[in-house]
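Annotated sample (chain length 430).
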Amino acid sequence: MDEETVVKLESEIEEESQAEYVSENKDSIDGFRQFVKEQLHNMCGKKGSPESSPQPSSSASSSSQDFLENRTAFIPSETGQEDSEDIYDFIHADRGLALIINNEDFSRSKNFGSRPGSSYDEVSLYRTFKKLGFRVLVKRNLTARQMVEVLKLVKDEYDHANADCFVCCILTHGDETISREANEKRGLMRQDLLFGVDGEAIPTRTVVSFFNDKYCPKLKGKPRLFFLQACRGSKYDHGIDIQVSGSTHTTRTVGGKNRDGIDKGSPVDQTDARTITRKNSFSSSVDPPEYPKNTLDSTDAKPEANVARGNLSLPAAGASGDNADRSPAREVPACPTPLYKDCLVMYATPPGHFAWRRKNGAWFVQSLCDVLNADHIDQISLMKALVRVSYQVAINYQSENPYRPDMHQKKETPVIESMLVKDVYFTKRK
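Output written by the structure step:
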């Protein structure tokens, strides 16, 4: 997609969301709440299924020339799907709601720069989930409080009882915080943060908890899927060199490319080769593109949180006796996973690391859409598809910022955390 196409599609999405809005004073929190409530009620009350709208082509999410043409070619299993008792029932009248929160314009925040390229991700996700049969609600440039309000309203006002599942995609700046729990016996606790455009943050675990069985009983027994494009810290993944026997990487090819998106005959370690040789097409930023200006290397909420990063040391390998006993033990923060039954969270990057984005979209989001747009996705389990997403990001992409050596030739591997108890298949709607 070129920029003109993205702008046009953004306008169409905006017009669709505004078409039946009648409330006034949308800028106040009460007006905003009423606006979103009306949007959700209108979506639930519409006649017909989302499939009645024009469907995007399967290549919509990765048609931009700055991305590899790494078309996904899944080969369905000859045995077909698994036993039905091992698969979530997708037999409801509604496929469900896909909520997309896209925070791109951070001009209101002193600590964060804007996120150019996120509009490509918004449009790609919108078209992908429409194709899969979802009703899609897009909210842009929300403050932290507005994010919470939207999540609450989606939890309470949408008709989840008649839906197969729920999807939430959040595209924003992120970070981590390490703080000591009120009960000091529990020690240090690490958690991920998601930022509103006002620079205020909400914990990722809060987002997920809104939709657990206790707070959203209409989703009991149904999959809840969260896809998060945001930083989880300030570390870089430098990648590793792999010794490979032979000079080329051989896989099945699709349309002149192999399945990894690497030119046939290219060495396996030359991932994203076409982008590497393009001098003026850099992976120009990460999320955030500029680390908060008013901090050092951390956004810990409290000063005592830095105790985990002090000059504490572990005993040397092989140390024993009195010397080992006298070495101070390093306090390692606990990292509780914000998961509940029937929930899956997929992060763009591991804990503590940057998430990468280009001027035409994020590595993770564009790869996710590429995989979910595959022709035979209805015959592929979601978990298998998401593993493919991680593979594409890890193998096909590396950053290109030659003028910033510290950010040059870095890698990224998405993370899947799941408490799904069955497999998910996006079966075609009848």
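Annotation: The chain has nine helices and 16 strands.
Annotation: The radius of gyration is 22 Å.
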